[in-house]
Amino acid sequence: MLQQVNVNIDGAIIRATRGTSVLDAAVEYGICIPHLCHVPYLSDIGACRLCVVEHVVNGRSNVTASCTLNVEEGMVIRTNTDRIRKLRRNLAELLVAQAPNSRAIQDIAVRCGVRQVRYSFRNDDCVLCGRCVQMCTEVWKARAIGFVGRGKERHVDYPFSVRPDFCKQCGSCVQLCPMTIPPCDGPMKPGEEYLCLKCESQLMLADETPDHCVWCKLGEGFACGRYVQ
Amino acid sequence: MPRLNSFRELEHLRESLRGQRHVITTTVMVCGGTGCQASQSRAVIDAVKDELSTQGLSQSVRLCITGCHGFCEQGPVMIIEPGNIFYCHVSPGDAFEIVSQTVVRGEVIERLLYTDPVSGEKIQTESEIPFYHSQDRQVLSQNLMVDPCSIEDYIAVGGYSALTKALYNNMAPEDIIGEIKSSGLRGRGGGGFPTGRKWSECREAPGDEKYVICNADEGDPGAYMDRCVLEGNPHLVLEGMMIGAWAIGAGKGYVYVRNEYPLAVEHSRLAVEQARELGLLGDNILGSPFSFDVDIARGGGAFVCGESTALMASIEGKVGEPRAKDVHTVVDGLYHKPTTLNNVETWANVPSIILNGSSWFAAKGSEGSKGTKILALTGRIKNTGLVEVAMGTPISTVIFDIGGGAIDGNKIKAVQTGGPSGGCLPLDKFDLPVDFDVLYEAGSMVGSGGMVVMDESSCMVDVAKYFLTFLQDESCGKCLPCRVGIDRMLEVITDITEGRGRPEQIDLLEELAETVSQTALCGLGKTAPNPVLSTLRYFRSEYEAHISEKKCPAGVCKALITYWIDPDKCPGCGVCIQGCAHQAITGGKQQVHVIDNQLCQKCGICRSECKFDAIQII
To answer: Is B2 within a domain?
Structure first.
């Protein structure tokens, strides 16, 4: 039988099934924790770290990613403190500077409160969220793509850079990729390191409802946990 | 050798080995550690061996090829008993003199003795050398007298008696864990997690199949204590692992050792084979119900594989990448089974705790950190090498008493402790003790025990840049803060060292460092900003000088310095003109030379060539 536990997330007592992650429990309840690498039906690798929350244990709060943290009875979680908002904003800033050319990443940055980007833009093609790799490995059991290289050289590739027979070109990797969503035509070019904030109206004023799910475009675009469920 | 089936048989073997050794009066102990091998100790060993057989002494004199003695800078080193005579910088040509004078007649060869760099006096015995006598050698003590390739040597000095005590003297696994807990032993690999607590959590974790792992994937620049223990006394580590496995209830162990440590791989492999042959590993060890075996796993050279979950992934044959540790590895570790992973030095401390009792161990050290710690002392000081001191010893004792202070009359500026994950402490913090909690509070850490001493010629911004470059290369790239965050920090710090720094970048650097340290996935990322944070904390003025004055106070950052010839000091000798590879210096004989800054590549050759100290950095 599935065991239910009570978790305190931002003051709300939530009943969740033992074994689900804090992120899933929060999103299901409508508490917005921005995330990128998490896909509801895939296991989490904790790569993007955007879903950081404060986990209060014995009065001390630890910052940890909520996608790999499983719910436990009596757990106390804070998703929207000043500290978390600042960390999230800094992470989103790093992310959007790597890849300002995707609408999904732009939206995440706006949602996390990034106004000005203090780094030069890089226009990478991939943010290494690992959604495609998890999809190929876990759903299709194909392992046709995987991570190659370490650190700065890390990239997603076929084994030995040759498309193997067992890649059926199903395209599910492309479907999950946040980079396939074309950027908005706002001024996100090198040398113009700021966000136009037009998207913000579509996100329904992220600042006013920072911790509520507002059924934003962000989720519709590339499968936020809320939309898939 | 026949398999030992009981504790009595082991004791009998020990007695007979001691009886054989009793007749040998003279022992020549030559260091065969990696440091001394690099300075040709193999040739010295061969020469001494030949010389002993020519003089017909190979039966009565024992030549012992030991592990590292710790004083690698003086290698190859040799100790001759009786007399405890210490020779350093020995060459193969000295073999005849050593055998015919010291071994046969007991005369001391003045030329080969160690000269104390502080007092300038020759010192005859090992125990009188300041480098050694200020230390408190516990783990390393056997390195001087045991041949790492011989299990007989280890048994003769009392090896495996802690194991028999644990197995036979009514010590239940709970008692062993209780003893380790009350000893206050904390993990020596860097984290400083209480070992007893780790063991008891692993013992209580559900599951029949459990593992113990020895982490010998030491990768910090300048640190080599695990290497020396594993190379010099692998049986000590094995014995610790056996006791741990018995306490936890594990049946299988792994030694994860870097493939870049060929001698450590060879010696640990040999030790496992020898222990298996004697029945100290395998089924029903010494006739008891305890069965345990050890395998050697070789690492492929990734720094991140020193992290526990990445190391376990590597042993499983997967890519060595860390995973989230919300469920601890003592519950869900190797092959998803409860696993206890400890550092080499931690395992090596276990046998003596069991043998001498927890109160003996807890008597050494400070309030929160007990026992001794091996430190790898390197950098701009007189004596470098491996140092073992009691926890709680002030840093100044290590650097000035054991290390002998700065070289070339320079002034010591800082010490970098704990490798890339540690931090830099300034001179006024040198009274802090070597203690897990105190150093953590000060923004650094004991870490694995690396200690790099820096003097006025080191630029702290450049030091932070060096460690960031190292970590950027070694980051696995899995999580965003570590992969991109370190890269961006390096970008900012490169801007600062190349004169493009802006005042607001210091705050950006600080904010970014905080973000990375709080959000990264594994220990590597969480501690990666420490070099930046600690240098910002203690040497902020250097960062500010780089940014506002566009000057590097230490004269290291090439973009911010220019070479200049002092006309009052330059005699016009022309040495610098010959040394300059870029024809940047002009001037005739007996005339003051001038450096053309357009052509100068700032390589510094002219400055090192000049005998009159006329070339200066401004």
So the answer is: no
For B502, name the nearest residue in chain A, comparing CA atoms only.
A118
Q: Decide which of B514, B549, B584 is a domain's last residue.
A: B549
The phi, psi pair for B597, rounded to 5°, reads -70, -15
What are the tokens at A186?
């706002």
For A4-79+205-228, give the CATH class: alpha beta
* Residue-wise pLDDT tens digits, B308-351: 999 999 999 998 899 888 888 999 999 999 999 999 999 999 99
Q: Are residues B490 and B403 part of one domain?
A: no
CATH of the domain at B379: 3.10.20.600
Burial class (CB in 10 A: 0-12, 13-18, 19+), B286: buried
User: Is residue B451 domain-shared with residue B464, that is, in the same domain?
Assistant: no
The domain that holds B568 is classified in CATH as 3.30.70.20
* CB of B346 closer than 8 Å to CB of B237: no
Name the residue with tokens 């209780």.
B178
Q: Cβ of B511 and A90 within 8 Å?
A: yes
- CB contact under 8 Å between A127 and B479, yes or no, is no
Supply the ipTM of this predicted assembly: 0.90
Chain B residue numbers touching A123 (CB-CB < 8 A): none
Co-location of B311 and B406 in the same domain: no
Q: What is the pLDDT of residues B574-600, one digit of tens each?
A: 888 888 888 888 888 888 888 888 888
Q: Which of B472, B479, B482 to mutate to test the interface with A (most CBs of A within 10 A)?
A: B479
Nearest CA in chain A to B473: A151
For the cut 70, the answer to whether the pLDDT of residue A196 exceeds it is no
* Interfacial B residues in 449-478 facing A (CB < 8 Å): 472-478
Q: Is B374 helix (H, G, I), strand (E, B) or coil?
A: strand
Q: Are residues B378 and B267 in the same domain?
A: no
CB contact under 8 Å between B483 and A118, yes or no, is: no
CATH of the domain at B65: 3.40.30.10
Question: Residue ranges of the domains in chain A?
Answer: 4-79+205-228
Contact check, Cβ <8 Å, A94/B484? yes
Q: For B491-516, what is the HEC assignment?
A: HHHHHHHCCCCCCHHHHHHHHHHHHH
Domain count across chain B: 5
What is the share, in percent, of chain B residues with pLDDT greater than 90?
Answer: 55
What residues contact B474, with CB distance under 8 A and at least 6 apart? A150, A151, B219, B302, B303, B304, B420, B524
Lookup: tokens for B246: 């018995």
Condensed to tens digits (0 to 9), the pLDDT of residues A13-26 reads 999 999 899 988 98
Give me the residue from A46, A119, A150 closest to B488, CB to CB.
A119
Q: For the segment A114-137, what is each residue's pLDDT rounded down to a tens digit?
A: 878 888 888 888 999 998 999 999
Q: How far apart are CA B335 and CA B52, in angstroms?
A: 52
Beta-carbon separation of A151 and B472 below 8 A: yes
Tell whether B554 is covered by a domain.
Answer: no
Q: Which helix H or strand E contains B396, and what residues bound it?
A: helix B395-396
Residues B88 and B169 in one domain: no
- Structural domain of B608: 562-617
Q: Check: CB of residue B190 under 8 Å from CB of residue B307.
A: no
Which of B469, B472, B484 would you mutate first to test chain A, the one with the most A CBs within 10 A?
Answer: B484
Q: Name the domain boundary from B519, B549, B579.
A: B549
Predicted confidence (pLDDT) per residue in B7-43, tens digit: 889 999 999 999 888 878 888 999 988 888 998 999 9
Please name the member of B323, B487, B519 whose beta carbon is closest to the beta carbon of A63: B519
Same domain, B518 and B584: no
Which residues sit opposite B378 in a β-bridge?
A: B452
Assess whether B182 and B277 both reside in one domain. yes
Q: Which residue has the higher pLDDT, A103 or B414?
A: B414
Cα B419 to chain center, whole Å?
Answer: 10
**pLDDT at position A229 over 50:** no
> Is there a single domain that holds both residue B340 and residue B416?
no
**Distance (Å) from the C-alpha of residue A117 to the closest C-alpha of chain B?**
11
pLDDT category of residue A195 using cuts at 50, 70 and 90: low
CATH number for the domain harbouring residue B497: 1.20.1440.230
